[in-house]
Every structure is written in structure tokens, then in C-alpha cells.
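note to self: dont lose this again. the chain is below, predicted strucutre after it. 269 aa total, dont forget to put it in the shared folder this time
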Amino acid sequence: ETIALLLCGLSLFDAVTHSFATIATGGFSTKNLSVASFQSVSVEVVLMVFMVLSGIHFGLLFAAVSGHMEEIWRSGVVRAYILVLAAGIILTTINIHGDFYESWAEALRYASFQVISLGTTTGFATVDSAPWPPFSQLMLLFFIFQGACAGSTSGAIKMDRIVIFLKAIVKRIKMIQHPSAVISVKLNRVPVGEDLLEVTVLYLSLYMTVVFLATLLLTAMGVDTLTAFSGSAATMGGVGPGFGSVGSMGNFSRIPEAGKWILTGNMLL
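---
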């Protein structure tokens, strides 16, 4: 990635620091305007490619470079991860085209980067997404919660847990329809035990409870709902930017001192 960024015209310092921030899905840029400061499509494309790769289980990446590329595509979680990112990009592009960006190419450029950046919990930004339509903001908020695959450097809930959770719901619906049926949930062709299903549901419940309580406390301090909720979700998932005053081109300086302690607790959790 460093070599690719150097070829795109970045200095060695910027190439190295942004490579570290990408692979760690940390997203901390050396520029106040983040990646927007470069105004380079080629730089954005390189970062997007490596953000997506960094969201994949590192064991699968190791298998791929060891000559077993098919292992990545055999993973149902990876397929779901790529499919959901693609769907998010398409829907966001359609939503912001016209009123915000006249050309489809420009809408696709900004939608792709923001969706991938938040969907991998990297947190880089190329544009201020705060003025975007509510649909696009909710779409990005979903990705703040989702995160990428387990075994990657991504934060948030993780795609694996979401897939297991959805399959558990389908199983429960089938059990209601056919009480005597024996139905097993599988992840990557491996059966998932009842204990793991229960732990996954409990994890998601606890995760959302912490976000809700942090949001509640922040709003009690006078923070607006959008900033409080997205800020709580972003810090809980290790994403970085949220919406409102903590948007992609903003920061957390406006949050009251007590609120900063709450969000610090979220990051530690």
C-alpha cells in the first residue's frame, strides 16, 4: 500500500502513516481534512482496496497469499461482507445523486469511500457527509454498527455475528412453523452450537444497550440526539466519525467534559 500511495504522488511520510492507519482500520490521518486534503481519485482507490482487504479475516488473507485464493470466496461471511458493502454503495450513490452531486461518477466516488471507510470502521473521510439526506446517513449509521469480518482489524459488531444472528432468527421462525423439525445453523459449512447462538444474541443485546445508555446520558447533558447516538455508536465500534457535530469533518471537542469520559468508556469497552 505504501508503494502504491507513493506512485499516486504522496510523500513517504504520508504514504507510510496512511498505510498504517488503513491496515489497522484506525483511520487517524495526519491531515485535518483527512483523505479529502489530497483531492486524488487514485489515492482514494488505493485506500478503498486496502480498507476492504483489511476487513477480511487475516487467516483467509494468509491462505490467499499462500496459494489458496479460493478460501476467501468459499467464506459465506466474506461474500456477505462484500455484497452488503456493494449494496450500500449503490443505494447511497443513488440517494446522493442529483441534489448533492450532478454526475454519477462523483456520487459513486464519494459514496464508495464513505461506505467502505465506515463499513470497515477505518474512519477516513473524503467529504463532509453531515449534509447528506437522512437515508444516506442511516445507511452509513448501519455500517458504523456492522463493521467487517472477525479476525480482521475492524471494530464494531462484526459481520460474522450479524450473519449468525440473522440465521438464528430464520431458525426460530422455522421452529415456530415446524416445532418437531431439527434445524441447524451453519457458518461457512460448520454447524453453530446453541451456546454460540446464545452468546451472539447476548453480545448484540449488550452492545446496543451500552450505546443506548451512553446516548441517553449524552442527551441529558444537552447534546443533540443525532450527535449523541452516532457518537456513542462510533466510539463503541472504534469507528471515529459519527454525524452532527462529530461528523467526518468535525470532532468531539464540543462534547461536554463528562460526555468525553462516557465516550472514552465506550472506546475501552
